Amino acid sequence: MQLFYEVGYSQLNKNNEELCGDSVEVTRTRRSTIVTVSDGLGSGVKANILSSLTTKMAATMLKKGSAVDEVIETLVGTLPTCKVRKLAYSTFTVAKLDTDGSIYIAEYDNPPVMSGSAQAQLDVRFCEREVGEKTIREARFRAKPGDWLVIVSDGVLHAGIGGVWNLGWGWDRVSSYVSRLAASGLSADELAADVTSLCNRLYGAMPGDDATCVAIRVREPRHLALMVGPPADPKDDEIAVQRLLECPGRKVVAGGTTGNLVARALGKPITVDLGSCYEDVPPTGVIEGIDLVTEGMLTLVKTLEHLRKNTSLSRFEGRRDGASRLARALLEADKVHVIVGRAINPAHQSRDVPAALALKSQLIDDIIRELRKRQKRVSVEYH
Question: For position 357, what pLDDT does the model report?
Answer without folding.
Answer: 44
